[in-house]
Write a structure and sequence with these properties.
heterodimer; A: 77% helix; B: mainly alpha
């Protein structure tokens, strides 16, 4: 029962936060995606590969509607996925997280993971809208992005562990170590090979909205899991030794 | 006798960790599978059923196209 309750609140928290992420994306990000895909359409028309006909528009609108439904489905699945990682780390690190309540602890962990797994990688490899990103470079870009997320994530875990064994006056050394690791990774790892070919306003607006969407997920999952845990603590009264 | 032993083992395991390892493994599997399908699949999953055609169709790539861009995952 404890195990089922634990898995249930983790999955429900992730799915709920994913739904909020999807709703925010529909409101804030989709207009930019529409603008970017329209640029792709204009390129097709200019190259003669397609013609701007009513038939083309009907097919295009239908396809975009299908992809937008995938936005909601995808963010819910992504929320369950990332929420599962969040639940695992929360369960294992709860005793050592800052804060007096489960909500504060959960929110603190969400903030750390938001920063290490999203903000830091985003600064090196920011989100791009459609029209930017060659198919030929996809494997390289994926490898670079995943590597940076792993470096930042594992670095955060290692230096967080280090901070726990350092004396109180020297904990800042762990933060400095993480900053140094990320600085080296920034300097050593290659840039995104794809060139920016669209107007700066579109890129900047898209990236801001993308960041707001992701942030809405981390805020939501932190609050939801903390609230569920405080109400239904699946391991209440059970000694925990993970730190 | 065997049941007594299993019960004792469970108690020891729970006392040591408090968190079900089975639950952690299950959630880790959900994490990997969900992330792969939404963020990185280029036809790999459905190729188990549809073969090479899945790499041409890229169903999950197209379905999750907007999420990939919005969440910062590499896409094209």
């Amino acid at each position: 029962m404890k195990t089922l309750a634990f898995v249930a609140i983790v999955l429900i928290s992730g799915a709920s936060a994913g739904l909020i992420h999807g709703a925010v994306n529909m409101l804030l990000v989709e207009p930019y995606l529409d603008s970017a895909t329209e640029i792709e359409n204009q390129s097709l028309f200019a190259s003669g590969l397609a013609q701007d006909t009513a038939e083309f528009r009907a097919e295009y609108e239908g396809y975009r509607s299908w992809q937008k439904s995938g936005m909601i489905l995808g963010t819910v699945v992504l929320g369950i996925s990332i929420g599962s990682l969040f639940g695992i780390i929360f369960a294992l690190s709860r005793n050592s997280l800052p804060g007096q309540s489960d909500v504060k602890k959960s929110f603190a962990l969400a903030g750390i993971m938001w920063f290490a797994l999203f903000v830091v990688p985003f600064l090196k490899y920011p989100a791009n809208p459609p029209t930017i990103g060659e198919a030929d470079t996809l494997a390289l870009r994926t490898a670079l992005y995943v590597s940076f997320v792993v470096i930042s994530g594992l670095g955060a875990v290692c230096f967080y562990k280090l901070s726990k064994i350092l004396p109180s006056g020297k904990k800042i050394l762990a933060l400095a170590g993480y900053a140094m690791l990320i600085s080296v990774a920034f300097a050593v790892m290659p840039e995104n090979p794809d060139k920016i070919t669209v107007h700066a306003d579109l890129i900047t607006g898209f990236r801001i909205m993308s960041m707001l969407g992701i942030t809405s997920f981390w805020v939501s999952v932190g609050v939801f899991l903390g609230l569920f845990w405080s109400r239904l603590d699946p391991y209440k009264g059970t000694p925990r030794t993970y730190n | 006798m065997v049941l007594d032993f299993m019960s004792e083992s469970r108690q020891i395991s729970a006392h040591k960790t408090g968190i079900s390892k089975l639950a952690l493994v299950a959630l880790a599997a959900v994490f990997v599978a969900g992330l792969f399908v939404v963020a990185f699949d280029q036809g790999h999953v459905l190729s188990l059923v549809y073969g090479e055609q899945a790499f041409a169709d890229q169903f999950f790539h197209e379905l999750t196209h907007d999420v990939r861009h919005a969440a910062g995952f590499p896409c094209h």
